[in-house]
Amino acid sequence: DSTCMRACSLILSWNSEVFTYLFSELRQGTVELKDFSKDVAVMFLESLYSGVVTVEKSQFRELNKISHAFKVKWMSEKCTEAFTQFCESSSHDYTDMLFLFNEAVYSEVTLKCGVLMKILVGKFSRFENVAEIFVEQYLNQNFTSIKPGTLNHILKISNGHFVPVLRSLKEHLKNKGGITDTVRIILSRAEVIQCMADQGEFCDEVFEQLIQQFDQMSPADVKLVMGLFKAVKNQDGSSSSTSDPLMNEPGSTKQTIPNLFHDQNSLRDVPDEDIVRVLSEVPGITSFMVVEYAYRRCNATRRRLILENLFCGILQNE
Fold it and tell me: What are phi and psi of 161, to 5 degrees?
C-alpha cells in the first residue's frame, strides 16, 4: 500500500545532498521510497528529524541501503558502528556469522562500499576455529556459485588455516564438480601450497581426486595441477635435484623433438602405459609438450591414461 508522508524539505536537504539536488535542482516536490518497506521509510524520516537512529539486525540492510542511497553520512556511520558491534557480540555460530558475512558482501557488491567487509575480515580472522565453524560450511554450500572477490575474503578469514578449505575442495572434486574458477583460485594460493606440504596423507587424497579429474581438464588445468605438485614437494623438502626433462620448460633443444602432431607412426603401436616413458626419451621434451600431444592427438581414453601415467611418473621421480 502506498502511503504519503509530509516532511520539511529544509530538514531533508540539511541531512542529504541527494535531497538538496532533488528539491533545488530538479524542483521535485515528491520523492518515492518504493524500494524500502514502510517501517524503514518512516524510521528514516523520523531519524532525519531527530538525528538519532536505532539500528537492529532485522532492519540493518534496508537502513544501510537507504542511508547510502540518499548519502546521509551520519546514518551510514551509525550503521557501520552497529555492524561493528554485531561482529564483536557475535555468538560465533554459523547462522549468526552467515548473516554478518552476507551483509558485508551486499554492502560491497551492491552499495559499492567495502568498509563492512574490512571490519568483518578483521574480526572474523581472529575468531578461534573460524575456518571450521564458518569457512568450510560456507564453501560446502556455495562452492560452485561463489564469486572470486567473495572467495578471496573467505580465504582471508581462514587466516592461514586452509585444511578446512581443502576439505571442501576435496568434497567438491569427489562429487565430480570439476575444475572451476574456485578450484583454480584455491590451488594458486601460496598458503594452500604450504598447507598441502604440511599435510602429507591429506595432500595425497586431494591429489588423488585431482588425478581422477584429468579427463575433464584443459591443458592449462593439467599444467596447474602438475605445477602445484612440484611446488608442494619443493615446500616439504622431498624434491630432488633431478634433471628429468619432463619437469623442465621447453628450451633451446626443442628442435630435436619429433613432430608428434603430424607423424605418429612411431607412436601408434606404443601401449598406453609406455607412452610417457617413450616420449620422455626424446631429448628436450617436457611434460607440457606431452600434455599438448595428449589433448590434440589422442582420444579420451588414451588421453586419460597418458595424463595419469605422466602424473604418476612425476610422483616417482620426485
Answer: -95, 90
- Please, what sign has the CA dihedral across residues 268, 274, 278, 280? positive
pTM of the model: 0.76
Cell of 304: 586419460
Q: How many CA atoms lie within 13 A of 265 on its CB side?
A: 1
End-to-end CA distance of the chain: 71
- Candidates 246, 245, 297, 301; CA nearest to 272 is 301
CA 223, CA 197: separation in Å to the nearest integer?
A: 19
List Cβ neighbours of 220 (8 Å cut-off, separation of 6 or more). Answer: none
Instruction: Judge contact between 133 and 127, C-beta under 8 A.
Output: yes
Cα distances (Å, whole numbers) of residue 31 to 6, 13, 17, 208: 10, 12, 14, 60
Residue 308 to residues 169, 274, 301, Cα–Cα distance (Å): 20, 12, 11
pLDDT at 157: 94
CA 287 to chain centre: 28
CA distances in angstroms from 26 to 19, 142, 232, listed in the order given: 10, 44, 62
Average pLDDT along the chain, 318 residues, taken 10 residues at a time: 84 95 90 91 95 95 97 97 95 94 97 96 91 95 94 92 92 89 90 83 82 78 81 64 40 43 61 73 69 73 75 55
CA–CA separation, 214 and 219 (whole Å): 9
Residue 93 CA to residue 129 CA, distance in Å, equals: 11
Q: What is the rounded CA–CA span in Å between residue 220 and residue 40? A: 51
pLDDT value for 34: 86
Cα dihedral: 116, 118, 120, 126 (round 10): -160
What region does 173 belong to: left with phi over 0, alpha with psi -120 to 50, or beta? alpha
Grid coordinates representing 148 are: 572470486
pLDDT of residue 266: 63
Q: How far apart are CA 236 and CA 18, in angstroms?
A: 58
